[in-house]
């Protein structure tokens, strides 16, 4: 099979190598062999290739942490695994079968940038029928991350003001959609006129281009000086620092990532005197610590997709040969929405 592999860590364009005759992975106990139909490109893919992610697979490995595909074969016991529809011990288990269309996070080192990948049967989910392969591939991580950040961590309420950084990006665009679905007033911060147009198309109530405007002043002006009740921050650095200056009394800042490259050191005395909370969100931990919640959120996102309330912002569907360039573009922060590889 064809696969992109990382023989040594470094910049994606420099180190990713296409292998034409890579062995097809064999599903072990509780695993699924999936024929990849679409693989969404994520920032963790860039970190994996650079050797900077918290998970470091042995070299060489195939990156790609999010896919939509069709089950080709089930490993031992995998055909007895619950497919994500069960929410309690009393719910009937519906086993996976070859031919089922699924989404999920592959088991490294057999990632999604290949013709075949492996999924743990317990961590696979039915692909939403309302979404095509590329959209379904891009739904899982981004919208799950946004949902857990806004609802599980920040307890966003209708009528509150939500400030979303990198609002035209993959996870930021998901936060804008889910914020609106929750009845919040959404202020979107972006970098550039093109990204501002994208944020407006997502339905943000106010769009601020940080390259030409002071987002702190804009948030204060839009809220009558009160500030944002919830801040969704996948950027870090100056975005976080500015957010502390325009978060409301008893507001919540959810730290989702550090795409800007700088990990801030918060002044906790400022959080104390202003009565705001700094919350961390590492969505991947929920897959092992509370998988039932992840399944429940997947069902909710599937329902929202069926109603047309959420739809991943797929801005480019790229051929298999485009993997190194796509991962590099995500690493460099030059993309809008989601890039999806279609083998």
UniProtKB/TrEMBL annotation:
One of its GO terms (molecular function) is oxidoreductase activity. Its EC number is 1.-.-.-. Residues 10-341 form the Enoyl reductase (ER) domain. This is NADPH:quinone oxidoreductase family protein. It is an enzyme of class 1 (oxidoreductase). The keyword Oxidoreductase applies. Keywords: Oxidoreductase. PANTHER family: QUINONE OXIDOREDUCTASE-LIKE PROTEIN 2 (PTHR43677:SF4), SHORT-CHAIN DEHYDROGENASE/REDUCTASE (PTHR43677). It comes from the Bacteria. The keyword Cell membrane does not apply.
């Amino acid at each position: 099979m064809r696969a992109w592999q990382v023989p040594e860590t470094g910049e994606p364009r420099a180190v990713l190598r296409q292998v034409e005759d890579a062995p097809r992975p064999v599903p072990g106990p509780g695993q699924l062999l999936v024929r990849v139909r679409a693989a969404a490109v994520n920032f963790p893919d860039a970190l994996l290739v650079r050797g900077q992610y918290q998970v470091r697979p042995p070299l060489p490995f195939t990156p790609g942490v999010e896919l939509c595909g069709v089950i080709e074969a089930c490993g031992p016991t995998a055909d007895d695994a619950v497919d994500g529809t069960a929410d309690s011990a009393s719910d009937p288990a519906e086993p996976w079968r070859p031919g089922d269309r699924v989404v999920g996070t592959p088991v490294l080192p057999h990632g999604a940038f290949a013709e075949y990948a492996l999924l743990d049967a317990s961590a696979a989910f039915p692909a939403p029928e309302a979404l095509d392969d590329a959209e379904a591939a891009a739904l899982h991580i981004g919208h799950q991350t946004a949902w857990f950040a806004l609802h599980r961590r920040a307890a966003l309420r209708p009528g509150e003001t939500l400030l979303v950084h990198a609002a035209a990006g993959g996870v930021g665009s998901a936060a804008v959609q889910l914020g609106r679905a929750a009845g919040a007033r959404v202020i979107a911060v972006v970098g550039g006129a093109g990204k501002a147009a994208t944020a407006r198309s997502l339905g943000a109530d106010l769009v601020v281009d940080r390259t030409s405007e002071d987002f702190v002043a804009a948030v204060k002006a839009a809220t009558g000086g009160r500030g944002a009740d919830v801040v969704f921050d996948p950027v870090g650095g100056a975005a976080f620092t500015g957010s502390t200056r325009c978060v409301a009394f008893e507001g919540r800042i959810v730290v989702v990532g550090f795409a800007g490259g700088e990990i801030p050191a918060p002044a906790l005395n400022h959080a104390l005197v202003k009565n705001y909370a700094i919350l961390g969100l590492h969505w991947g931990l929920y897959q092992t610590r509370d998988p039932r919640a992840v399944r429940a959120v997947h069902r909710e996102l599937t329902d929202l997709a069926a109603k047309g309330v959420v739809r991943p912002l797929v801005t480019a569907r790229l051929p298999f040969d485009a993997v190194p360039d796509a991962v590099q573009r995500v690493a460099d922060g030059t993309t809008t929405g989601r890039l999806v590889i279609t083998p």
